[in-house]
Here is the input.
Amino acid sequence: MSTEILEYTKVEEIPKIVSELEASYFSGITLDLEFRKQQLLALYRLIKENTAALVDAMKKDLNKSEFESLMSEIMGVEYEIGYQLANFEKWLVSEKPDLSYQPGYAGADIRVEKVPQGVIISVSPWNYPFRLTMLPLVGMIAAGNVVVVKQSEVSQHTTALLSRLLGQYVDNRILKIVNGGPKETGVLLEQKADHICYTGSGAVGKIMVTAAAKHLAKVTLELGGKSPVIVYGLEKQDLDIAARRIIWGKLINCGQTCLGVDYILVEKNLREYLVKQLVAAVKEFYTENPKASPDYGRIIAQRHYDRIFNLVSGSKGDVVLGNIKDWDRETLYIPPTIVDKVEFGDSLLSEEIFGPILPVVSIDSISQALTYVNQNDHPLAIYCFTNDSEVKSAVSKFTRSGSLVFNDTMMHSGCHSVPFGGVGPSGTGAYMGKASIDNFSHHKTVMVSKLHSLDQKLDKLYH
Here is the structure.
């Protein structure tokens, strides 16, 4: 297939792009629910008519296999479109509050309407360039907003293709594209918007919040972080399944997943056996030669390759899988790497790895694990493998994270009936399904009082 060329938006055009969207919003075009349905159906056609091209673009950017692109990027967006089409009208129905505790308002006409917020700037990342652009966009359109989409310039093939397709399929009165790097993004963030939605690093997330503060815009941030796996209170026979689920959650997309497994805290007497099972799982999934495996991805760019290389080079742990001599900077190949006997304070625990490196740390007690997790930023997810109900209770009560999953990794992100989002340093706000309607709508209280009360009418009758 031919390669799309990513063209940057001229910075002098960006203010006009945003002002045109604002004018479209105030024209009332998005208030028509049938119009919104047509735009969602257009997104669905975009996918169905261009699946092969999208898969090819993601292969060029991240070496994703067709199966991985379909499973982790495309199918979830298809489902979200159908889910919104089937439900967004009822999710938008005005809500009547319970006034029974305030008799003075009994019988009053008070309701909460979910109305569009207006202009949304949506900035998406390179690691899931289709999914994380489209999933929030579906909810934004269903909620009646107009949107400026700014995709990552790093995933250039997918960004170039999707920019063209969005312009081709969606009404450009409600959706416009801005492409470019930090310069273009900076100019975009100077424009007045009602909501800024961003997925990416915490450092850039702070820039987004600062930009939003200038106009007091609402923000949605999905920022990731170091999502730990805690393995405690398991029988040895359960470690095989646990290892396979951990490796899947670590190595999908070559470890470049905001929700992905970052490191393991494992009960001391289970560590050695778990490491053996982790190594076995890697070889089962990606063979003895992952470089030749059609299912194994690549790092997005040399800058990220170098960062990961430095983290591993500085580690004092024992590399039990993944020889650093096999790394290939030119092809951006980093093999699945398991580092055992990592100590607290190690370079691999200093920042989010965002690559196929799995540090394993021994712990003496569940309280030690919780103490360590709580000393660090609240992660987007915590994964805990245990059969001990007291451990489950302790992890649930005494940690904070965007989500908490027992005995699995990442699977909750495919459920469209629950919100997807972080807490504190891992993000704010959430979307997916109904949560998208709630997040991208303004909940407006409307009260209608009568100018003439019953008392006034009776007074006129008898006087």
Notes: The mean pLDDT is 96.
